[in-house]
User: What shape does this take?
Amino acid sequence: MHIPWGWIKQRPHFIAEYLSKDFDVDVRQRKSNRLNQSHLINKIPQQSQNLKISGYRLISFEKIPFIKRFNLNWINRILFRVSINQLERYDYVWITSPLIYQYISHINTKTKLVYDCMDDFLEFPDVQNNPLIRNKFHNLEKKLISNADIVFCSASHLASVLQKRYDTQRDIYVVNNAITIYEDSDCNSTSNKTVIETIKSFQNPFIYIGTISAWFDFDSVVALLNYNESINVLLFGPVGSSAVPVHNRLHIMGAIEHKSIYEVMKYAKALIMPFKINDLILSVNPVKLYEYIYSGKPVIASRYGETEKFNDYISLYKNSDDFIHFANNIINGKPSKLDETEMKKYALQNTWECRYNNLKQYL
Assistant: This one.
């Protein structure tokens, strides 16, 4: 994995857990280089016979001034091989980022290489803004797409982008993101009780759960807050490389453990996914919408190709006026598109178990 296991729970976590039902799985997760580890909230599960989790560390030389133009990646190759050796003993090596390919490209042909692409990595702001990193990612992903035995993508648009960008007609299998339902949400823990009491203290809480970064549509959120003084917007998740505007009814709540999100969503007046539509977002199959729909709460999200499939269950907006209109409908008690039973039924047809059964056929 190219992210720490402790990062907010995402596609690589779920797939690794489900693979361990049928395979012996060793997860190697990239350790965070930050001194402050407060951004890591997803707990490493207890080690089992089928699922073992350990870490490796790399140095981001491309981001260090005065050093980034020197080719020091040989140091990372040594660090990686010291941490992760004897890859040839595995039947499959499964990677989640082109960055990892440079360290495992030496594996023998008997080991099947699987690339699971969950985002358009070349469109992330820190890659876009650094020509050295962008060129490196492009070259690595081109080789990876060519040499992998199996390529999965999380979205149809993303698969099309990869085929066009690298001029290939190879098979790329689309396995969308999904939902996991927790039987025990640990809603009685002290930290959860504190969070719930905080949510209850706000009038009309509109809640977002996920990463907060440059793609977040703060313009529409602030426009809504300025238009309707009865609404508070609560943002749950790590804050990335985006400046968060200051507003007395815009609240940064911090990251929460994934299994707690269903308890948090119970107390929302509405759930929102306000994203700016750019090339990065066009390739995102948003896992949070499956989770939002399962909650049965009113949902407002940006309209683009990957969200159109949810149109029967949520409200999709194109601009700030739409966003305000849908929010006011919710405040004024106008009913959601479908009742809670139908929304739950749809979400349960899109679980990670369903996705895994599909994915397993390709393996």
